[in-house]
Design brief:
The protein is α/β, with parallel strands linked by helices. The protein is built from 11 helices and 10 strands. It is globular and about 50 Å long. The protein binds S-adenosylmethionine (SAM). S-adenosylmethionine binds next to loops.
């Protein structure tokens, strides 16, 4: 059950506590995300936390305003044969956080339209139902919207999100307020409890420990993380059952086309790869892997 912003209201205090031990230097964070984290702190000091989805640091990176491609995605969902029993339900937004309404349907947001599209398009191209897995590992989970979508669509299995500590805290607050149990003590948590993690090695261990089918998902997460850190995170990716990546061709000085091609090549014996340009989003690509 949603708790009307009880934890979200505390985001400024939690971020202030984190700031005391936060080091903005080091190879794990690039300049872009260092700037976003700094801006996030500024926003938390000057803007209401109950509508944190409107903060520039969030709107710019993970809760976007309307763009033309959202209409393409919405139309795709409307015409999909699972519209009635799946996507129409998945599109329902929560008031927690003050979402930006989508102009063609104000009960949803452009961001949630995009998230639903990722799953529907993956199903269509890869022939795998993303909900029919035993575990989901997400890298760079934003404020937790994809995780909430999985739960709203009825997925009950294990869900683990890896992210920067500040975003892990935002995920914790928002997910708790939308009625989803979360924990950082992964061993203690049952499958109904979402695991939040900021340690790359511990995250990779989750892939190792998972029995059954694991879906690895990262939409503009891996592609925005420094190359050195990606290696640790993806060390056990070959154990997964399926992979859903969305990425931009370059991020800062990193050529993602080269990086994702290398990743694909390393796992060409394990996965069948599909994907290609993301509809109506020039310079952005899907990479879908299904176990051979
Ligand atoms: C562009 S956002 C994408 C969020 C979400 N997946 C979506 O599609 O809306 C990138 C995500 O990667 C995370 N991220 C960026 N740099 C990171 C780093 N160095 N380590 C871990 N996570 C990082 C951000 O906190 C954020 O959750």
């Amino acid at each position: 059950m949603e708790s009307k912003g009880r934890h979200v209201e505390r985001i400024p205090d939690v971020l202030a506590e984190l700031l005391a031990s936060w080091s903005s230097s080091g190879p794990d964070l690039n300049d872009y995300w260092r700037g976003i984290c700094e801006n996030l702190i500024e926003c938390s000091r000057s803007m209401p936390a109950t509508s944190f989805l409107r903060w520039p640091a969030i709107k710019q990176t993970m809760h976007m305003t309307h763009r033309p491609e959202h209409d393409t995605y919405y139309q795709f969902l409307l015409e999909h044969d699972r519209w009635h029993d799946r996507w129409s339900l998945g599109l329902q937004e929560t008031p927690v956080g003050g979402y930006i309404p989508y102009k063609l349907n104000i009960t949803t947001s452009p961001q949630l339209v995009q998230h639903n599209f990722h799953l529907a398009y993956f199903m269509a191209c890869a022939g795998v139902d993303p909900l029919q897995v035993d575990a989901v590992l997400e890298i760079g989970g934003g404020y937790g919207a994809m995780c909430r979508l999985f739960r709203n669509l009825g997925y009950q299995g294990r869900y683990t999100i890896y992210d920067l500590p500040m975003f892990t805290e935002i995920q914790r607050a928002w997910l708790l307020d939308v009625g989803i149990a979360v924990d950082t003590e992964s061993e203690a948590a049952g499958d109904a409890t979402v695991r939040l993690c900021s340690d790359a090695e511990a995250f990779a261990e989750q892939a190792k420990a998972s029995s059954g089918k694991t879906l690895l998902i990262s939409t503009w997460g891996v592609s925005e993380i420094p190359l050195g850190k990606r290696e640790a995170l993806l060390a056990e990716a070959g154990r997964c059952h399926a992979i859903l990546f969305a990425f931009q061709e370059a991020f800062g000085s990193v050529n993602n086309m080269t990086a994702f091609n290398e990743f694909m090549g390393r796992h060409s014996d394990t996965f069948t790869w599909r994907g290609g340009p993301i509809p109506d989003k020039p310079g952005n690509f899907y990479l879908f892997g299904t176990r051979r």
